[in-house]
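#structure-requests
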Amino acid sequence: MSELSELYQQVILDHNKKPRNYRKLEDATQHAEGFNPLCGDQLMVYLRVEDGVVADVGFEGSGCAISKAASSMMTQAVKGKTKDEAERLFEEFHRMVTGELDEEQTPNGLGRLKIFAGVREFPARVKCASLPWHTLHAALAGEVSTSTENLGPDIDADRVSA
């Protein structure tokens, strides 16, 4: 097993066992529910936005290890970011997992989130990794729910580039 694959597995397992920011924010100013009908992943993302900045973020829900780890790492990545910076991370993450962004060659702000680049090798898992991000995107837009069913053909498992 390559060092990157081993690191990927360790990070996923760690964030699955001990998810960061796994809680409901009672003082959330925005929230959205995300659902993946393909596998049953379901989560709520809670945001407290103050003066255009994501002051706090939390999530709750159930899902596979990839979905929970992606949710955990997403909350760490967007806390303290402006709404525009969070949206930019959403776009970069989405492009990376669908194979539209070469995270090593193209400048980006993904940092540790690059660990999820490997999911594009497993097209059925792309929706698992991206569900939290699409739910964040919905919450930032003031929408109350989203579903991977509505994410369009660019994220369908049979269309993801390998």
